[in-house]
């Protein structure tokens, strides 16, 4: 977790989330998302890259958002394995109230070298501010800060993540090891109009979630 650039925003779209390694706790736990346009819950909300000093507060907020330790431990493990590519926090009145994380993963195929990719997980918002648009802000900022050369994968509700450019990964014959509903394993390809070579790099591969995700 590095960097301190602030991104101050005046309005947002409400988000809530799904459950899996890409779980989102942004609206009363991990229910399916809904959307509506609202003003931000507080005028001083700021988004920035997380710093190492933020880790305890992030874990505490993620734990409170989900109601158990699994996602908080995932954040800690990804940090410990040095897999974090982008970590974004939303801060209000000096308190971390939202978080989203992109980790480095690989697309693998038999007899071929792994290809780098990113996984979005977890996404969380403080319980007292869920359903107020903060989840959308941290996801959107994470996607904006992602390496534009790499595909981003997520497991979650298509109705929510589709708004950020995610589509079904199964359309590219990409698989992964978790048992999730059809269409809930998604990918956002590089850039707005991915080149044919980028699309070809996805076909018939497996997204290799690392050991940090064990237990989901």
Average per-residue pLDDT, rounded, comes to 82
Which oligomeric form is depicted?
A: single chain
Largest sheet: 10 strands, mixed
Helix content: 10-25%
Number of H/I helices: 5
Distance between the termini: 23 Å
CATH homologous superfamily heading: Gcn5-related N-acetyltransferase (GNAT)
The second-level CATH architecture is 3-Layer(aba) Sandwich
In N-to-C order, the SSE pattern is EEEEEHHEEEHEHEEHE
Broad CATH class: Alpha Beta
Structural class: alpha+beta
Number of domains: 1
What's the total count of β strands? 12
Determine the CATH topology: Aminopeptidase
Shape: globular
Please give a structural write-up:
With 216 residues, this protein is α+β, with helices and mostly antiparallel strands. It has one domain: Gcn5-related N-acetyltransferase (GNAT) (Aminopeptidase, 3-Layer(aba) Sandwich), CATH 3.40.630.30. It has helices at 55-66, 70-80, 134-145, 158-161, 196-202; strands at residues 6-8, 11-13, 24-25, 37-39, 46-49, 84-92, 95-108, 115-125, 152-155, 167-168, 185-188, 206-208. Helix 1 packs antiparallel against helix 2. 21% of the residues lie in helices and 29% in strands.
Give the topology, please.
Layout (H helix, E strand, L loop, with lengths): L5 E3 L2 E3 L10 E2 L11 E3 L6 E4 L5 H12 L3 H11 L3 E9 L2 E14 L6 E11 L8 H12 L6 E4 L2 H4 L5 E2 L16 E4 L7 H7 L3 E3 L8
Parallel strand pairs: 3-8, 8-9
Antiparallel strand pairs: 1-5, 2-4, 5-6, 6-7, 7-8, 7-12, 9-11, 10-11
């Amino acid at each position: 977790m590095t960097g301190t650039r602030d991104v101050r925003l005046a309005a947002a779209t409400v988000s809530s989330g799904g459950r899996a390694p890409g779980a989102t706790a942004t609206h009363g736990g991990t229910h399916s998302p809904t959307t509506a346009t609202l003003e931000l819950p507080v005028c001083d909300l700021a988004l920035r890259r997380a710093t190492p000093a933020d880790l305890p507060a992030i874990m505490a907020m993620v734990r409170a958002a989900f109601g158990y330790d699994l996602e908080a431990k995932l954040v800690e493990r990804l940090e410990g394995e040095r897999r974090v590519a982008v970590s974004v926090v939303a801060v209000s009145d000096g308190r971390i109230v939202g978080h989203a994380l992109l980790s480095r993963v690989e697309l693998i195929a038999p007899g071929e070298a792994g290809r780098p990719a990113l996984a979005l997980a977890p996404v969380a918002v403080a319980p007292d501010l869920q359903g107020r648009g903060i989840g959308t802000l941290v996801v959107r900022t994470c996607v904006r800060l992602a390496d534009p050369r790499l595909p981003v994968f997520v497991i979650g509700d298509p109705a929510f993540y589709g708004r950020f450019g995610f589509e079904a990964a199964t359309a590219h014959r990409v698989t992964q090891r978790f048992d999730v509903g059809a269409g809930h394993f998604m990918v956002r390809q590089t850039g707005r109009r991915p080149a044919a070579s980028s699309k070809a790099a996805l076909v018939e591969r497996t997204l290799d979630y690392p050991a940090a995700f064990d237990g989901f």
